[in-house]
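Handout, tutorial session.
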Amino acid sequence: MYKLFAILLTFVMLFTACATPAGTPTGAAADGQSSDVIFAVPDEIQAIDMHQITFANLMHSLTYVPLVNMDPTNTYPVPSIASDIYVSADGKTMIFTIPEGLYFSDGAAVTPEAIVASYIRYIDVSIFGNDFDPVDVIEAVDNTVVFHLGESAPFLWAVMVSVYSGVNNVGATNLTDDLDAVSFGPYYVESWVPGQHVILRRNEGFRSYDPTVTNHGPAFPERITVRFISDDFTRVNELLSGNVDFISSVPAANLAELQAAPNIRIAQTYQAGCSFMTLNTHDPILSDHNVRLAIARAVNRAEISAAQDNTIVPAYGFINHAMIGFSETSQQEMNTLWAHDLNEANALLDASGWTDRDGDIRVRNGERLSLELLIANDHSAQRNAGPLIQHQLRQIGIEARITELLTPAIRDNVRAGDYQMAVRRFSWADADMLINLFHTDSGFYSNPAIDPLLEQARSIVDGAERAAAYGEVQRMLFDSLPAVPLFYEIMFSAHLDTLDGVAFSSTGNFMINDVFNRR
């Protein structure tokens, strides 16, 4: 079953928010005329129609907006297309008020009926359509769109704040001709030259109710070009030469050069998820809790991050601030629980009888403390971390024998139990992802004490209470130690200093609302 592991969620007992869009763009930038903007991205789009793709491109954040967004703390939903949001106390009814004055790129009005039709098409057409399985009925009632659920499902916000569930004018969007896609967003596609670029034109009928932006009317730049430049060197040089205004996916090798350039600004977003080292609790050596805890104590995350020029962030826990379900209180506790401590690591191994030595490797009853470590050779941050983790474990007398495999092969080995230690990663902006990693039904790990906590946390309606519940889940994961969190990644973009208002939503969507080009 496909899942849209990319964005975010959290239910609320009752949340209502409203921003008043202006008919004319607001803010300081409105005093002048913004120049056109040229973006450069590494990957070409699969299609224009969001309902027909398997991965999104920055372009889709310019041509679609979600029904709602998340607040800056990823705790509660806030308006976007909808002007008001209501969720019942039991989480089974979600009501979104759709204001008048919103228009698709072809000039047709965005109505509750049009939004319902778009969601039904998404469920029928999209490869991710089954993400809406918890929804029994979607209906238009007066000026609202109503979702009826059989049970509370806060994890739906992860899909609803994604551009994947952006709204199409179904009557004007042709499944057989992608160029006919008619969407509601700040821009629409005027032309697409495959292998080269997409030209976008401003949708004059766009309005936003998102309270996190200043400009609630049409975007400032009239025209946007999105160029497809897969070569990192070329993409960076086009920015340095002033031929483009913004590039995504800044390579680590060029980051320092761009940071030093006086006319370049760096923006960053964070991986919603982390890389972690899973430990086979059924292995004869790793079944000993002391050995697993010693491994956890030996890992020096700050050292791993510094070795990669701090393009990754130490992960003290499996949930970070880019995810719904994050709790700052829980994070402070995790920082202590997962602390690096070589003295404790050595004492734990001594207590388990690994006291003899073969050179610098520990030995017990003639057996060397030697473990295989699976590392993905198709993921640079993990591959680069491997030798350093190997060195850190050797400091406490553990030999880590690195075997490099492709990511799918590592996943299959872990599911089959054919491993000792393996570095894996996940990217999904909701803490509910943990149920796919550590619940018995996941096939990766089984602990009857954790299963009910994961099941309960995913259905808690209130965002703050849900985050606290995931704090308890993380505490139990530390106690049982099926895995050790390592790091999460920073995604860098760069732009000329003449491009003002560059911003991203808390879920990582590019926000064009306040962008103004002074060139």
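The second record follows below. Compare its token runs with those of the first.
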Amino acid sequence: MSTIAVYLLPVVIISNLALSLVVLLRGFKDRINRLFALQSLAVTVWSIAILGFYLLNSAGRVWIVFSHVSAASIAILFFYFASNFPKSLPFVGNRIRYYSALIPYILITGLLFGSKYIIGDVRGIDYEINSGYLLFSLYISVYFVFGYIFLIRQYLSYDDLLYKMQVKYVLIGSVLSSSLAMFTNLISPYAGVFSYTWLGPIFTFILVGSTAYAILKHNLFNIKVVATEILTFAIWIFLFVQITLADSVTQRVINTALLVMVVVFGVFLIRSVIKEVSHREQLQKLTGQLRQANSDLLLRNRYLAALQALTNEITRSLDFKKVTQEIVDGLSTKLDFVGGFLILLMPDNETLELTAITQSRLVKKAIGFLPQPLNSYKGNLKKDNTLITLAMRTGRVQIGTDMASFVSPPVPRGVMNIIQTVLRIRTIMAVPILSENKVMGCLVVTSRSQKTAIAESEIQMIKALGDEVGIVTRNLRLYEQLEHANTQLMSANKELSRLDKAKTEFLSIASHQLRTPLTAIKGYMSMVLAGDFGQVSEKQMEPLRDVSQSAERLIGLVNDLLDVSRIASGRLELHIQAVDLYKLVQDVIEEIRPKAEKKQVELVLDNKVLGQVLVKADPDKLRQVVINLIDNAIKYTAKGHVTISFSKNANMVRLAVKDSGIGISEEELPQLFHRFMRTREAQLVETEGTGLGLYVAKTIIEAQKGKIWAESEGLNKGSSFIFELPEAEAVKPESWQEVITLSPNEDTNG
């Protein structure tokens, strides 16, 4: 052993011992501090054992056993330190797996202390390597290799630069120092070379140096506190050595008193420095929190602006496919994600179909790995057990790192793993699409950031986008349903128009064909009743009158049908001229009076207007309207009176036909002037009738710029039918005339 080793090893011992004490005092409750301190302490014991082996050779085997036990301790402590630095790996939470790593260490320690299976007899600085040494070497190598792997995983799992640099320098220092130490203290002795085992502890300076660099550059431990503690401990050790080396009692007393004063002062100094550093760390922490809050706010504002731009785009279109494609493309172009896809729930509330997927160049390349066309993959909400179906069932965002757990089934897991590797996806988010608390689908977003690096603001932004997608999807689906209903309605209207036209043509043809024979029947019946064909007995007279009245009713029905046909086809012409309404009513009353007398209904004509009552109207059509109103009043009045009255209002002349008959219910009044409309009471009193007379009357009056309506206080309280027409000047009828053709669109009561 060289003289330099005698001086270097104590330095290693003191530096590692000081480092372990400093780290423990910095925070004994912290697991990382305890593991690092124990590792430094194990290096200290290892160095002491090697120094003792070389200097005190008489107890050589004891020292060499202690050196190997210390080396075994360093390996297991490095394993545990790497699995917890800077944060614990997932397997640490499994206590059984975590502490089962101690079993090989306990076995190796037992073999070293209790047998010569690993280390045999000692001869000078050489010692016997037995068959168990291979097991010992394997133990050391495996634990250090696993430690390296853990540190590499720690380095790769963090995006934080500070954490990365801390792990990087600890990894470099531990790899270099342990590799060199294993060469001199593990491999060389196995080859029979024992002269360089003292170098092993010296190589630990590399780890101390890299740790010191991490302290200085990357704040592994606080440099100010560490420097203060090391300086204080150095002074304490120096004074303690002075006490032990003092030549007189007086010097020892003075040095002891000085040591006590320095210890007290050092404690206060360390506490004050720790307090100052603590305050500074709190300030830095608050500053960092403020900086992080500002960063989050800027990120949130950027996301909100991008989200608003995307929302504006998707709400401007009513094309469902275009909108869904803009949503998934916007994940890449506007929100800086890899991309995503949209899955919608079909009307059967079970089948899940892919509606849109990001169409970037890389995504298209990745889709090419699928063995089947993309649209052939369909999921099942009730049967599939994926994170997509879980998000839809629970209504909560699901975040994961395995793409296959989201889409397998139906996509094969192996293919999905390849696609995830090609796209370099690290994190996947499944956002349920809800509308009015009803699940409609799922928006899947992919990112290259680590799961732990996904900010809460990003998750909230994606949830907000999911809500927008839900609203847009619901609205577009409703619009599509409305468009479909409108198409069906237009088709139905077209068919109805065709059928209505055919019906009108049929009525016109049928009415014309019926009118000629009915007119002949009525004419011949009038001649028979008048005795033109000979005397008719009283017994024959009654049925002949019934036949004549039936023929007259049929002619009226045919006339109504013809009018309806002409109105519908736009062929009804009105020849407007000045008509004496009063005289027209008198003529109608005289014509219809026999029918009234037969029913014992009194007809009363009340003219409050002096002189002529002239209106602008078609005389034939106006006569038809007046006959219809007075005839209805007589028909639905069992016994009583019908009053026909005139009045003027501004430039309008009003005619009212009031009866004391069956009346009209309030709910049926608005429907009276519709085609084929008859009240329930009217159908009971008069079973025959078409319900066309009032419809034709309304059409004629309104075509002549007048209006018509009905009034009644209720059933059995009589009713009034009233119309108004523009007043005409007192001129001769033949001096002017106006022809009006009623167009089809004026028929508004069908």
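Points raised in discussion: DSSP finds 21 helices and 16 strands in the chain.
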